[in-house]
């Protein structure tokens, strides 16, 4: 056999052996690519639908509570959603991998300061802005100072000195949507779950309706942070038992998404506990344990509030 032919045979043999080694190390099939999919639920939804009301189907035996046209409740039921399976984004563009986010995310942006209570305030403010009810856009600071949009739109700005606040004329009148967002961004920095809970009137647990807020402060939770969620839709059976669709903003700030409780027997819909407590259980990452564990957030019914 000629030297060139022998060399070619040896080269082909070596290459074949090397490929066998690589193939054995990698396995006979490539690693599956992880595709985020919503957790299966016995309660169906319309994946292609693009609003809260049209995407979510009440469980068997339950009928959706229809909100009167033009109300805040109807505004939320008909709020536009992002496409099914799209996760919410944090204010910095990173993805928030919450399970509920795969199911439904409100189709709007988010800024650094828009956290949980702020998200509720923003929805109320934008609803009133669309209806040109500017006088109803007003939020209290922790200090009790009332920061209303009409003052802001007329060109006044808040001068903060320690715990004291006062209006100072700075700009020309501007009732634009962009100026509303500037106003809200300022409010977010001085209002939180405590100020929102103090400002809004309490609602009886039997009178909860779409648009109401479950808001609990950090001290009431014995935690470093409070939390606020809101009712985006609800349904009821003939016995008067009610189920709720709960949505929330988060800390750090991310787009508003479904608050999905993994232990709910009604899929994405949540029923209050027998003591009228709202409980939402999620599988969340624990920094101390460096692992995912089930965590339950609880809000007693006494902390339900309603926007004016």
Order of helices and strands: HHEHHEEHEEHHEHEEEEEE
Q: Roughly what is the average pLDDT, rounded to an integer?
A: 88
- Structural class, please? alpha+beta
Q: Roughly how many Å is the radius of gyration?
A: 26 Å
Number of helices: 8
Give the total of beta strands.
Answer: 12
Characterize the main sheet.
Answer: 6 strands, antiparallel
Task: Please tag this protein with its features.
308 residues; alpha+beta; two-stranded antiparallel ribbon; 8 helices
Describe the structure.
The chain has eight helices and twelve strands. Helices cover 25% and strands 20% of the residues. It has one domain. Strands 1, 6, 7, 8, 9 and 12 form a six-stranded antiparallel β-sheet that branches. Strands 2-3 form a two-stranded antiparallel sheet. The longest helix is centred in the N-terminal third of the chain and has 24 residues, at 3-26. With 308 residues, it is an alpha+beta fold. Strand 7 and strand 8 (242-248) form a beta hairpin.
Write the layout of secondary structure elements.
Layout: H1 3-26, H2 52-55, E1 63-64, H3 72-77, H4 116-130, E2 138-140, E3 146-148, H5 149-153, E4 156-161, E5 164-169, H6 177-188, H7 193-199, E6 213-216, H8 218-221, E7 227-236, E8 242-248, E9 257-258, E10 278-286, E11 291-299, E12 304-305
Antiparallel strand pairs: 1-7, 2-3, 4-5, 6-7, 6-12, 7-8, 8-9, 10-11
Helix pairs in contact: 4-6
Summarize the structure.
The protein is an alpha+beta fold.
